[in-house]
TrEMBL record:
Sequence ranges assigned to domain Pyruvate kinase C-terminal in this UniProt record: 360-473
Family, as annotated: Belongs to the pyruvate kinase family.
EC number assigned by the record: 2.7.1.40
Enzyme class: transferase
Protein name stated in the entry: Pyruvate kinase
Pathway per the UniProt entry: Carbohydrate degradation; glycolysis; pyruvate from D-glyceraldehyde 3-phosphate: step 5/5
Reaction(s) catalysed (UniProt annotation): pyruvate + ATP = phosphoenolpyruvate + ADP + H(+)
Cofactor names: K(+)
Coiled coil ranges: none
Source organism (scientific name): Candidatus Galligastranaerophilus intestinavium
InterPro entries the UniProt entry points to: Pyr_Knase, Pyrv/PenolPyrv_kinase-like_dom, Pyrv_kinase-like_dom_sf, Pyrv_Knase-like_insert_dom_sf, Pyrv_Knase_AS, Pyrv_Knase_brl, Pyrv_Knase_C, Pyrv_Knase_C_sf
Residue stretches making up the Pyruvate kinase barrel domain: 7-326
Length: 477
């Protein structure tokens, strides 16, 4: 097998100032990055447009199918622009007010107009991922007067959380709508929706996407307590889930997050939806060339729990060791996947939401693998539905996807164990096509003559129909 088949867990890398040229992106792809995230909370639309084009060029240059995720800011409350960073000390009195930027030294500007409506006396306000805390003393004249209870250095544009608040911000903001159009116009592969609280939030985002005559999959980011309460129904309507542990660990107690993570991964696998684990996975590598042992264990445990992908944020967007961070995550993935603990329940429950024929074919293919000691699954698919379903069975061999749609190849770069190839192959599976398949498998995947593969496809047209047959094929015979 070629080396790229050794890592089945996918890696999402966030793009930022640390990765600002095509060559740097190429290095991340070579290191093992499969998906690139554009964080719209930072930078301008023109910045993201330039990065988007850079990623596509780098991917084309290396003949890969890197996916691009446009991550919407959502109803995220942030500190406005400060004159300079502020050192906040315990016991210090401060005032929060809706402003774009600081005009008085004792005022902390906030970009959320409803800040004074969503807090009351004794409410907690957390800043910069909970590093700084304040308690509300009084709300008066649209200003929030508070006392710092846990000090620190506050910088511009840091996040602000009000635990327990059901902030009156819209699920999809005007800025989000603008970036949805941007994502559609640019041909993004995924759109990530922040601060999802209920399934209606996901459906609203999908409506906006459909209004632009597009069908981009929506990743629901779970970072609010309400999302955990509505977990099953959110997963049922989302195309993918992200365990966004940063804000989740602020809104909940940090000690609750590991169990929530496991519950989310388990439910996603049960509902056959891809799941990404994110935030602070290799945080120390923003400044250091090697991770802490605890970080390595964190990544490994997410993989062993059954995550489809793990994500790097600041490590690649602003870190000094972006390429090393991706390389490290790749090594952890390979090591974890070879562990005796990397085993999954093969119980397969038929879903009423999916074609029964497709499910039966995929389940049968998984059973066939061990009987013939197959080296790979060869999945022919137009949109990738059956391939994604096969992924959720976590087979012990690579899933080689052949699709006649490049966008399907890119989307499947996020899905566990899938290695996409774009081929304009049509027609029936006759002897001539089998010869082309053998040539492809030997020359492009590293499989050898005499190896067995299990093929899933459609008939009479190999790719464009609904998956309805499975067969065992011995390469070169």
């Amino acid at each position: 097998m070629k080396s790229e088949f050794f890592k089945r867990t996918k890696i999402v890398a966030t793009i930022g100032p640390a990765v600002d040229n095509e060559q740097a992106i190429c290095e991340l792809i070579k290191a093992g990055a499969n998906v690139f995230r554009l964080n719209t909370s930072h930078g301008t639309m023109e910045d993201h447009r330039a990065k988007f084009k850079m990623i596509r060029k780098a991917s084309d240059k290396l003949n890969t199918y890197s996916a691009i995720m446009v991550d919407l800011q959502g109803p995220k409350i942030r500190v406005g622009n400060l004159k300079s960073e502020i050192e906040l000390k315990n016991g210090q009195k401060v005032v929060f007010e809706h402003k774009a930027e600081q005009d008085e030294t004792d005022i902390i500007p906030v970009d959320y107009e409803g800040i004074s409506k969503d807090v009351t006396k004794d409410s907690k306000i957390l800043l910069d991922d909970g590093k700084i805390a304040a308690t509300v003393d009084e709300v008066k004249d649209n200003k929030v007067f508070a006392t710092i209870t846990n000090g620190g250095i506050l910088k511009s544009r840091k996040g602000l959380n009000i635990p327990g608040s059901t902030a009156s911000l819209a699920a999809v903001t005007q800025k989000d709508v603008e970036y949805i159009k941007f994502a559609v116009d640019m041909g993004a592969d995924y759109i990530a929706l922040s601060f999802v609280r209920q399934k209606e939030d996901v459906l609203l985002a999908k409506k906006y996407i459909n209004d632009y005559s597009a069908n981009i999959p929506v990743i629901a980011k779970l970072e609010k307590p309400q999302a955990i309460e509505n977990l099953k129904e959110i997963i049922s309507v989302a195309d993918c889930i992200m365990v966004a542990r940063g804000d989740l660990g602020i809104e909940l107690s940090p000690v609750e997050v590991p169990i929530c993570q496991k519950l989310i991964i388990r439910e996603c696998n049960k509902q056959k939806k891809p799941v990404i684990v994110a935030t602070q996975m290799l945080e120390s590598m923003i400044c250091e060339p090697i991770p802490t042992r605890a970080e390595v264990s964190d990544v490994a445990n997410a993989i062993i729990d059954g995550a489809d992908a793990v994500m790097l944020s600041g490590e690649t967007s602003v870190g000094k060791f972006a390429t090393q961070a991706v390389q490290t995550m790749s090594k952890i993935a390979r090591e974890s996947e070879s562990s005796v603990f990397y085993k999954f329940d093969k119980d397969f429950e038929m879903s009423e939401d999916m074609a029964l024929t497709r499910q039966a074919v995929v389940f049968g293919a998984d059973k066939m693998l061990k009987y013939v000691n197959a080296k790979a699954v060869l999945s022919f698919s137009h949109f990738g539905y059956s391939t994604r379903l096969m992924s959720k069975l976590k087979p012990s061999v690579p899933i080689i996807l052949v699709s006649d749609l490049e966008e399907t190849c890119r989307k499947m770069s996020l899905v566990w164990g899938v290695y996409p190839f774009f081929k304009k192959w049509g027609g029936v599976l006759d002897q001539d096509l089998l010869l082309r398949i053998d040539e492809f498998l030997i020359n492009e995947t590293g499989l050898k003559k005499g190896d067995y593969v299990v093929i899933t496809a459609s008939a009479p047209n190999l790719i464009t129909g609904r998956t309805n047959f499975v067969r065992v094929h011995k390469i070169g015979t």
